[in-house]
Design brief:
By secondary structure, the chain is of the alpha/beta class. It is built from 16 helices and 21 strands. Helix 6 links the parallel strand 8 and strand 9. This is Polysaccharide biosynthesis protein.
Length: 460
């Protein structure tokens, strides 16, 4: 009791959830003299936990009792401490908390912090309102192909590439080589992996995957064992207008890396859900990279949209909200599969451990999200009444993305969030015949032909 911190200046707080996260949090709140919170009770929907105590703090009710308990205890904040929660629960609790005159805070998700303490509690983010997915992976399986290996990541400065570098670094590779053509983002990811790194560090490789000679030289001199190929152009509307640029980077760039890679132990191509039954230039080029990767004995990992990446719907909405609106959504019924970068990369590393050559590993965490609802939630977090304007679907855009193409079966033999689908091969020689300087219409048509099933392709 002498160690217990208390006193004026602390904010009275209710904790929602009576599990392991809440236990760690309450212990910190009670015994850390620097804790900004004074716990006044716990809420939990499990009737079996009524009258329980954590760190001496009692369970005083359930979700439905929040209004009453806030009034009785004088709590000014409610801290959400549930690690695996559906989006509806978090949104409902936020609405109840605001209606009761309090403020909702959340504990970090697994992976955001090493040890949970009262100082780690943060404001609600839009990713919290989309739900929290408990992703179980086997670190030993991932370490089995990364620890002590020479690992190369292309597109290392991008959202996925940089998170790959950070997570791979924790598995103690013999060398982590980070390749990108953008010097600013390359330096940023280098410092995020090692804040003490120097600019002359040989782990940083400034190169463009379009440059076949430079890529061959890097593979010849650095001899990577494992390759994660994340370099790509991905802005769908721009690529509809400039398909030649998509071909140069996404198709020819991938082929350059595959041909230079030779007999690396493991080659992982970062794909996208747009590759399933593609209807856009981005989708066509991603599907072709899956087929090329399969032809060279590598595997691809396919997943939905990544929240927070440059050009993503999240960053676009945030900029529009900061500008005072309106927030633009293409269609009231448009849905997308959304994942956080951390979720996507964590699953990707595990998928690469259990995948086989010639497969696409399809990642799925949660159900498709209604984009209009995402916009409404972000506006609600901002607190200002802003309009939502519907602008219509753009060229090459689907109303709802799919993760599986025609004839692909959702087969999950090893992990509940990872499906395995076989990928037919594409002939590299035929792909090299693409004319990047063709008209946009002609090139897009040729890309569509290369993605068609063999039986429906026109005769040569």
């Amino acid at each position: 009791m002498r160690r217990r911190g208390s006193g004026p200046g602390r904010t009275p707080a209710l904790v929602f959830g009576a599990g392991s996260a809440a236990s760690s949090l309450l212990h910190s709140m009670v015994f850390d003299p620097d804790s900004p919170f004074e716990p006044v009770g716990i809420l939990d929907d499990d009737p079996a936990k009524r009258r329980e105590r954590l760190a001496g703090i009692p369970v005083v009710g359930a979700r439905a009792d929040l209004d009453r308990v806030v009034a009785d205890t004088g709590a000014r904040v409610v801290i959400f401490a549930v690690g695996n929660a559906e989006a509806g629960l978090i949104r409902e609790l936020r609405e109840r908390t605001v209606a009761a005159g309090a403020r909702l805070l959340v504990v970090p998700e697994a992976g955001e912090t090493d040890e949970l303490g009262a100082g780690d509690v943060r404001d609600v983010q839009v990713t919290d309102l989309l739900g929290r997915h408990r992703i179980s992976t086997d670190p030993r399986a991932v370490a089995g192909y990364l620890t002590g290996r020479r690992v190369l990541v292309t597109g290392a400065g991008g959202e996925i590439g940089s998170e790959l570098c950070r997570q791979i670094h924790r598995f103690d590779p013999a060398e982590l080589m980070m390749l990108d053509h953008d010097e600013a983002t390359l330096q940023a990811v280098q410092l995020s992996v090692d804040p003490q790194a120097q600019l002359h560090d040989p782990s940083v490789l400034l190169a463009d995957v379009r440059d076949a000679g430079r890529i061959r030289e890097i593979f010849r001199t650095r001899e990577p064992d494992v390759v994660f190929h994340a370099a790509a152009l991905k802005h769908q509307p721009l690529l509809e207008r400039h398909p030649g640029e998509a071909v140069k980077t996404n198709v020819f760039g991938t082929l350059n890396v595959l041909e230079a890679a030779g007999n690396v132990e493991r080659f992982v191509n970062v794909s996208a859900d747009k590759a399933a039954d593609p209807v856009s230039v981005l989708g066509y080029t991603k599907r072709i990279t899956e087929r090329l990767t399969a032809a060279f004995g590598g595997l691809s990992v396919r997943f939905g949209n990544v929240l927070g990446s440059r050009g993503s719907v999240l960053t676009a909405f945030a900029a529009q909200i900061a500008d005072g609106g309106p927030v633009t959504v293409t269609d009231p019924d448009v849905t997308r599969y959304l994942m956080t970068t951390r979720e996507a990369v964590r699953l990707m590393l595990h998928a690469a451990a259990i995948g086989s050559p010639g497969e696409a590993l399809v990642l799925q965490a949660g159900e498709p999200v209604l984009i209009a609802e995402l916009a409404r939630q972000m506006i609600a977090l901002d607190g200002r009444p802003l309009d939502i304007v519907f602008t219509g679907l753009r060229p090459g855009e689907k109303l709802g993305d799919v993760l599986f193409g025609a004839g692909e079966i959702d087969h999950r033999p090893h992990h509940p969030m990872i499906s395995h689908v076989p990928v037919p091969h594409s002939d590299p020689a035929s792909v090299r015949l693409l004319a990047a300087d063709d008209t946009p219409e002609g090139l897009t048509g040729r890309l569509a032909e290369l993605c068609a099933p063999w039986e429906s392709r026109p005769a040569a």
